[in-house]
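>> received
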Amino acid sequence: MGFGIRAELLCGRYTASAFNDRQSFEWPPHWARVYYALVDAWGADGSREGGRAALEWLELLGNPEIFATESVSYRSPVIHFVPVNDVDLTSPQKYQRLYERIGNALAQGLAGAAVVRKERDVNSMVQSRGPMSMSDVDKAGQMFAESRGRQARYYPTVRPADPVVVYWWEGAADPDDRDVLDSLLSQVV
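>> returned
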């Protein structure tokens, strides 16, 4: 006896990077990706009743055995360059000092609210230091997409000989709310 989920790649291909190498492909699809897609399906339609219980049941089963073909053809990753979203108008040193002050305050047993209040006062003093310098204006200009640097994103793709992947839990019984789980699964694309 056991419980399984059968997934079919409708277009016959799978595009995902390996967790430790963005240029390498992931095959077979990791169970966590399927689980997160189910959570997204549950939340997308107003968190349907019973969905949370079904997801918690799946979570308690642990990691499944994954049955998928080992025969895949690999396409070199398509590379796209996208604007970098992490432009910061403040220096990393400021955050390091803030982190150290909060750490010291917690070590001394000060209340967290008092530390935050003091940091807010420090921030307001920094903001009231006067007119912005030209370097501040230049940094602010970097926030616009056309001014930001570009970062490579890779999309490695595999085409398996058999586009079906089965996630199997040996010894698991069918869930009580099978209809809810089936409904969630039908929402995952």
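>> The mean pLDDT is 78.
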